[in-house]
Design the sequence.
């Protein structure tokens, strides 16, 4: 089941590297040890899902791996050796003694690269199978999805094969054993070993993200079976901000819109992004940056945080906002259950039109029962018009009570109408400098 998220939303949340960001969520999650694992992580992260069964499967696997202490010690070069071995162009080695010795002799006398790659690939494969033998019994102790158990059973059959046991016992791979293993790996059991390597990449990915659970503030999401139950999230923080201040929030079945106010730099945008990142990660079945999260399954996530001007098409920022809003309305008209985030709506037009447009649009949002909206704004003037909507709640960020201008980044219920723009302008000495220039 496809989860709707577009490029603009991925960029807003800094999920992948772009020319505009030096840090991203993908790099933060990527502790994989193999190229195959890294590619699979990218594949998963470009395909979020609203399939509850799949998401629960992933969380159960990650939970199990997070509780295990095992040495997942495979080096990137060794996995590369195995991949290269599987696609090597040389004919499969013959198993009769004469040909085995001949192949080995040619390697010693002529230094044939193909034979070297065969031996290197087999050594890496045997090492990987030995590694897996040490962890497979521990994995069987956990409650895991049937598909994962089937992979484990397939690997056990490989491990119990007579030739693999012989290779495990050998101190060195002699020419006769090399030939037999090559027949086994590239002919009779090629598909099984290919599946084993792909399974290792899965474990590499899940082990990589499971490491997040060893950190104090990460947890696995829980999924509600009720379609409009919304979201509850405790101690949420932005994972790319050092020492980020945690906040808790909820959009329950009775809340459709959170209207967020507060001055610039008080934490609104970071909070919006943190919520968006958590919704996105939860629809991968991955850990989230919060002590607890329970969410309904949404059909998509759309954010409008850093909407650029479209110079190539000659479109203004405001018209770009309108076009994006129209595409969102079209998605909503398909009866999709969406999570939508807007940071300072209609900032591309004049104040009067922005106020009126915001009132109309946000009031309309509050009547849409199957989606959730997180909207930030500086327009505290909207309060009197919006407070009649019982599905809309007001929250804010702002200064600490003791020290105006000193932000504590804590989410509070209610409005905040602080005007800090002029204060910042004055503190930076710009007003004084301009007055001095005028006097000169």
Sequence:
């Amino acid at each position: 089941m496809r989860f709707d998220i577009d490029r603009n939303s991925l960029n807003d949340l800094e999920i992948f590297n772009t020319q505009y960001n030096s840090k991203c969520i993908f790099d933060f999650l990527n502790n994989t040890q193999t190229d195959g694992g890294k590619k699979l992580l990218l594949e998963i992260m470009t395909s979020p899902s609203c399939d509850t069964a799949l998401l629960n499967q992933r969380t159960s696997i990650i939970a199990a791996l997070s509780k295990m202490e095992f040495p997942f010690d495979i080096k990137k070069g060794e996995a590369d050796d195995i991949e290269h071995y599987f696609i090597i162009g040389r004919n499969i080695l013959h198993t009769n003694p004469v040909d085995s010795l001949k192949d080995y002799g040619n390697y010693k006398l002529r230094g044939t690269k193909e034979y070297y790659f065969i031996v290197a690939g087999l050594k890496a494969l045997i090492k990987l199978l030995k590694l897996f033998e040490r962890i497979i019994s521990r994995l069987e102790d956990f409650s895991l999805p049937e598909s994962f158990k089937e992979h484990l059973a397939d690997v056990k059959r490989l491990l119990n094969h007579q030739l693999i046991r012989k290779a495990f016992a050998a101190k060195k791979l002699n020419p006769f054993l090399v030939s037999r293993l090559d027949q086994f790996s590239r002919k009779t059991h090629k598909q099984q070993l290919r599946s084993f390597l792909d399974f290792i990449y899965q474990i590499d990915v899940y082990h990589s993200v499971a490491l997040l659970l060893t950190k104090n503030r990460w947890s696995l999401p829980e999924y509600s079976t009720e379609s409009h139950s919304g979201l509850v999230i405790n101690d949420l923080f932005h994972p790319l901000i050092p020492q980020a201040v945690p906040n808790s929030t909820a959009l329950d079945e009775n809340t459709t819109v959170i209207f967020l106010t507060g001055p610039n730099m008080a934490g609104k945008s970071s909070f919006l992004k943190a919520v968006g990142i958590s919704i996105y990660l939860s629809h991968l079945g991955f850990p989230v940056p919060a002590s607890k999260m329970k969410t309904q399954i949404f059909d998509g996530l759309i954010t409008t945080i850093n909407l650029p001007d479209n110079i190539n098409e000659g479109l203004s920022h405001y018209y770009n906002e309108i076009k994006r809003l129209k595409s969102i309305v079209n998605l909503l008209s398909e009866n999709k259950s969406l999570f939508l985030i807007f940071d300072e709506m209609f900032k591309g037009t004049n104040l009067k039109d922005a106020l009126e447009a915001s009132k109309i649009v946000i009031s309309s949002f509050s009547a849409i029962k199957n989606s959730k909206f997180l909207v930030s704004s500086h327009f505290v003037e909207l309060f009197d018009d919006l407070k009649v909507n019982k599905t809309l709640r007001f929250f804010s960020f702002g200064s600490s009570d003791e020290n105006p201008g000193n932000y504590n980044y804590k989410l509070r219920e209610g409005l905040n109408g602080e005007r800090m723009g002029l204060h910042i302008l004055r503190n930076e000495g710009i007003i004084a400098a301009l007055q001095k220039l005028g006097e000169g």
User: Anything to note?
Assistant: Residues 31-214 form a domain with the MutS, DNA mismatch repair protein; Chain A, domain 3 fold (CATH 1.10.1420). The chain has two domains: 31-214, 222-439.
